[in-house]
Design a protein that fits this description.
The chain has 446 residues and is mostly beta strands. It contains two helices and 41 strands.
């Protein structure tokens, strides 16, 4: 072999080494050549957080099928080229699920836990009969009978409506047909406190001139004895144990919302804060809104609050920076998600939408477009699933489960029809349904 030949072989070997080394480096960092697009891209992946047991997952363009078991319901599909894939999930006897999933270079797209409901009416367990209304909190149920009485654990308690319920479910405030309120601990339901009389006596003792009746009631967070009482003359904190009173506002309050650190309320088109540490009312430096806000509500962590104005404009405000952004118009109801990262709303046109915004000072997001039509005049028309990935809603007398996701297609599953009212218990993942025939039943959503 000549010297020249050996030199050429050396150069070729050296060049090959560097080419292979660079190729190996790119390969190890997730770079691949896509024969479909004739481009070099970094790979990504799809992670299914939970696929129902017994279901079959098919991903188009991959010709792959997965059958998760009970112990392996999470699925990671790696080494995917960046493009949009369509996934289908089928299970015998259940409504199907499909979704277009975009994969980005070097990223894994996470798909939230998937809920699939039976194609026929799900198994329902009877709870009570001859029911005209019901309320549930922490797995405790109060029903109203045909005789307009409230039933709790086979006994009768005063009132005809549950107006407020303590966070731990141990105490309630009820209201009768004449507008009188009762406070009672469910540990001793026979010892009810006539709230109107006790509140009036406390105002007289404190020399408060306001004698207007109670208009609305709410419990202080993490308390089963302290109440917020709203009247036409102000807002009060009332302790049912000591029968003492603290005046929060001495002018008419349009609306108030309770957070973990404070109560926010609207008075004369201004927003004020009453911290639970007792530092007194504080005016938020927000310009009065015309025609003025009529309702205020905070998310669960107190990082954002929403204002519904008299003209139907919904405005979301960062509590720390007070930066505000309009969300929608013609809004009728609003409800924050358990994760405190989304705001659901319904409009006067019976449309439903979700606004994603993030928490703790993160940038405000863009609203998701109206998805479906809903019925109902209050927040009972919509309710969040405990994981904030799904929303329950009524239309017109049927109950549905909707994905809180704007990636097409939007999966909409019917739970049951002939529903007068429903309530979702996140602790047990159970939906309680009051049927048109007065029967109260329960079914599990999983």
């Amino acid at each position: 072999m000549t010297k020249r030949t050996r030199r050429i072989l050396f150069y070729i070997t050296t060049l090959s080494f560097f080419v292979i080394a660079v190729a190996a480096l790119f390969y190890s960092n997730g770079w691949r050549f896509d024969l479909e697009t004739l481009t070099i891209n970094r790979l990504g992946g799809i992670y299914f957080d939970k696929v129902p047991d017994g279901a079959t997952l098919t991903v188009e363009k991959l010709d792959l099928q997965f059958n998760p078991s009970f112990l392996g319901s999470s699925i990671l599909i790696a080494n995917l080229f960046p493009k949009t894939y369509t996934a289908h999930i089928e299970k015998t006897g259940y409504q199907s699920w499909s979704k277009q999933i975009a994969v980005e270079p070097s990223l894994v797209t996470e798909v939230p836990p998937i809920i699939m409901l039976p194609t026929s009416t799900p198994a329902e367990l009877p709870v009570a009969s001859s029911v005209t209304d019901f309320w549930i909190k922490e797995q405790t149920i109060i029903t109203r009978t045909l005789a307009e009485t409230l039933q709790y654990q086979h006994g009768t308690i005063p009132g005809t409506t549950v107006s407020a319920w303590a966070d731990d479910g141990s105490a309630v405030v009820t209201r009768n047909l004449h507008g009188y309120y009762y406070f009672l601990s469910l540990n001793a339901p026979s010892n009810a406190l006539t709230l109107d009389s006790a509140f009036q006596a406390a105002r007289i003792e404190a020399k408060i001139a306001d004698r207007t009746p109670i208009a609305s009631v709410a419990f202080e967070p993490d308390s089963a004895t302290k109440l917020l009482l709203q009247t036409d003359g102000g807002l009060y904190l009332f302790d049912t144990s000591s029968l003492s009173i603290t005046r929060i506002a001495d002018t008419p309050v349009t609306s108030f919302s309770i957070g973990p650190k404070e109560v926010l309320y609207i008075a004369d088109r201004t927003i004020l804060s009453f911290p639970w540490n007792g530092n007194g009312p504080q005016l938020l430096p927000i310009a009065p809104v015309i025609p003025g806000p009529v309702r205020i509500t905070m998310n669960g962590v107190g990082s954002y609050f929403a204002l519904l104005n008299a003209d139907g404009t919904l405005v979301l405000t960062n509590r720390q920076t007070l930066a505000a952004r309009p969300v929608s118009t013609g809004v009728r109801t609003m409800l924050f998600s358990p994760s405190a990262m989304e705001l659901a709303f319904t409009t006067t046109g019976q449309e439903f939408g979700i606004y994603t915004y993030g928490t703790h000072g993160q940038a405000l997001g863009m609203p998701k477009t109206a998805l479906v039509h809903v019925s109902g005049e209050d927040e009972q028309a919509i309710a969040w699933h405990k994981d904030s990935d799904y929303v329950f809603f009524e239309y017109p007398d049927a109950l549905y489960l909707l994905e809180a996701n704007d990636q097409p297609p939007i999966n909409l599953q019917k739970i049951d029809s002939g529903v007068k009212k429903y309530a979702y218990d996140g602790a047990t993942n159970t939906v309680f349904l009051l049927k048109d025939n007065g029967t109260l039943v329960s079914t599990t959503v999983q």
